[in-house]
Amino acid sequence: MKVIEGNIFTTECQTIVNTVNCFGIMGAGIALECRYRYPEMFERYKEMCDKKLLDIGKLYLYQSNNKWILNFPTKNHWKYPTKPIYLEKGLLKFKETYQQKKIKSIAFPLLGAQNGGLSKDESLELLQKHLKEIEIPIEIYIYKEDASDDLFDIFKTAFLSSSLDSLKRLTDLKSNQIKKIKEILENEDLKNMGQLSSFKGIGETTISKCFIYAMRPDIKNIQTNLF
Q: Which residues are designated catalytic?
């Protein structure tokens, strides 16, 4: 088991744990970023919550071509705090089922510590207690706000290398939005996609379109096709 200070989306693990509520809202932290990265997963999660199918101690595994996302409820309503018993129920469920679900390696955030109200030490202690005997590679990430992620450098290079017309076509962003983002990328020292949201005029819809663009399979080759 490794404890890492950084961004969980840099992990090489097969599966990433996403902390969620049972109310159908992914509005902050790792959950919001997972919503941007995997919109189909979010729609399925919301449907499950609307039908009251997701609950404390139940887990929802989403398998994409890139990563598997294990949605782990840490609270019922997004407004309420996390309780240690909620985490223990989910961790016990994970221990009982990870082999059956063919999870080969997994990265956890500090459950309940970012928006759930638990301390980092309390969350880490619970994770280590319940995961210490599991025989697969496990990483526990302590979130670092300015740590690099796996998409930003690719996104920045491709975005700055592409023409306005090309970006309008590929992102569905308006000209003024594209110019604003290019200005930010050229003048600000950013490390990850999430930091874009801190700038005035860059709302959730714009960020979502940036994530969709950054995750295009062909994005890595855009800069090499210029001549």
A: 75
